[in-house]
Amino acid sequence: MKKLETREDFIELLSAMLTPLKPFYTDARGRIKLSGAGALYCQDSVEMEAFARPLWGLSALWKNGDRLAPFEEWYRKGLVSGSDPSSPEYWGEGGDEDQRYVEMAPIAFALMASPDVLWDPLTEAEKNTVASYLYKINNHEMPKCNWYFFRILVNTALKRLGMPYSEKRLKEDESFIESCYLGNGWYNDGYSGRTDYYIAFAMHFYSLIWSMYIDDEKKKKIIMERAERFAEDFIYWFSSSGESIAYGRSLTYRFAQCSFWSAYAAAGGRNIAIAKGIIVRHMEAWLKNGIFDNSGILTVGYCYPNLSMADNYNAPGSPYWALKAFAVLLMDENDNFWKTETAPLPHLENIHAIPEAKMLMQHRGWESVSFVPGMLGMGSLGYFSDKYDKFAYSSSFAFSVAHTSETLEEAAPDSMLCFIADGVVRVRRGSESYRMDGNSLISEWSPCSGIKVITEITVHGNCHERKHTIASSIGCVAYDSGFSVPNPRSEEKIQKRTDSVSIMSGGYVSNASCMSGNGMPVVVIPYPNTNLRWRNTAFPSIKIEIMPDTTTVVVDRFYTEKEDKDD
Asked: What is the C-alpha separation between 509 and 523, in angstroms, rounded?
């Protein structure tokens, strides 16, 4: 793999990612038809999504006069055919909360960043057709979350192009986004209250992009000040080698995880050397994984194609949201960004609390780990308990998603405490309450009727300890488990003692130790394709017998390391 160093390297990478899509554009270029996963929205939206998302990269490329034939011609043609009700490739009419409005965001960005490519060559009739279609976003309601930015971007684009837009909607939507601000650089994602990657690659990314196309200097300043403060916390999500924590939904967007840093640098952020280092290492780390199919198309999955972990809104074109990371191309070849050496991560605290994100971070250089209290009962878009409710999320080990809750192996409950009662594997699905206390995070939760748990996680050095106080009116078995590693397929790679078990595989070690209580160390071999990073895995666990009508106190320690410190 070629190392990413120059602007030309990023252009070559973008070209290599988009070229495989060429055979799948429709005749009038308004859609891309890819085979693969289904999603909760209609096929018209699926094909519009695949068409629109490459614009996150192409628009940034076009801004400074670079071209990538035949995409310039194809997107002019496709933009008109998709928005024309008389065209066989018309994207269709949307209702409230329609997926089509999501895909209007990269189109609006393209019209602002590169109007000379997509807008100026159109006839007046074609301009009216495109503008009329985009304006329809103002006639419908958005879910109260980052989607409000889609309408902000559309109306800002229409305003800049001298076309009809809604000033009323623009002001209302700006007010809503402002209401999501929590302080210290953090937003929540609207009504959901989630503080996951959407704060980085949605709330901040859109803010920074938007700030480049408005004239209000006061707003620009506020947006950048918040981004600078957010960066002080968000940097803890990234390891020294570029990986970031696998946490939350939309993980199939992959290197969109670093897109905040791309927009931050393009908008004039202070620490461009650090931002550049994170972007380069992050994208290079991703390119070492099998994220493309044999034809070069980005797949739904994480480190390999995997529908088991998909959200219910992941269609075949969804992964191209990753191209937000190419916002670095908004900076021309003479920009200081490209002349700056990539910097390593600065010194970071071993333990760092982010109250707004409900996270306690442990940074060890090669690994970043977040400890969370769970989503406090939030709803599901697909495997939410696996994506939000585990005790710990790592940049190196990823996590597993359950195939079913019928057996321990199918449930794959790594990094969490599960209970098996009445033949069902039950895990934490949100917490009733939580609090942070120094280097500890305490949560109260219940996996099912008859069981109450207080879990206190204490982080120190290279490990963390979990103290579980379990009040149960039923008899059952519990498993307190550590991070998954590749299945070693060899007993020589497993060290089992009376109170602990270590698994050494793939260059990593995962250990679980019972410090007090009646725990017995075991190794769990989950079903294939449950883990996001590795197809076949194993994880260490402490098996605990729970007697009815008792309170059980268990303290377990979990430790991870690299087998090869130079790896």
From this structure: 13
| Contact present, 483 and 510 (Cβ < 8 Å) | yes
- Here the tokens at position 71 are 């995409």
- Distance separating the N- and C-terminal Cα atoms of the chain: 17
Neighbours of 125 (CB within 10 A): 9
Where do we find the tokens 């002001």? 171
Give me the residues of the chain with pLDDT under 50, please.
Answer: 565-567
For residue 133, the SS3 value is helix
d(CA 262, CA 102): 20
Q: What is the pLDDT of residue 380?
A: 66
Contact call for residues 316 and 38 (beta carbons, < 8 A): no
3-state secondary structure of 484: coil
**Spatial distance between the Cα atoms of 274 and 258, rounded to a whole number of angstroms:** 12
Q: Report CA dihedral (357, 363, 369, 370) to the nearest 10 degrees.
A: -20
pTM score? 0.97
The answer to whether residues 447 and 435 touch, using CB atoms and an 8 Å cutoff, is no
Other C-beta atoms within 10 Å of 155: how many?
Answer: 26
Judge contact between 231 and 345, C-beta under 8 A: no
Nearest 5°: the CA angle 301, 147, 298 is: 20
The residues near 453 (Cβ < 8 Å, ≥ 6 apart) are 417, 428, 444, 445, 446, 447, 468, 469, 470, 471
Q: How far apart are CA 491 and CA 505, in angstroms?
A: 11
DSSP 377: T
Question: In 213-271, which ranges are continuous DSSP H helix?
Answer: 217-234, 259-266
CB 548 within 8 A of CB 506: no
Integer Cα distance of 165 and 148 in angstroms: 15
Element (H, E) at 426: strand 424-426
Q: What residue type is 158 in one-letter code?
A: L
User: Do 305 and 293 contact (CB within 8 A), yes or no?
Assistant: yes
| DSSP secondary structure code for residue 203 in this structure | I
DSSP H/E element including 150: helix 148-160
Find out whether 429 and 447 touch, Cβ atoms under 8 Å.
Answer: yes
SS3 content of the chain, % helix, strand, coil (to 5): 40, 20, 40
Burial 15-24 (b: 16+ CB within 10 A, else e): eebbeebeeb
| pLDDT score for 24 | 98
Token pair 């996996």: residue: 447
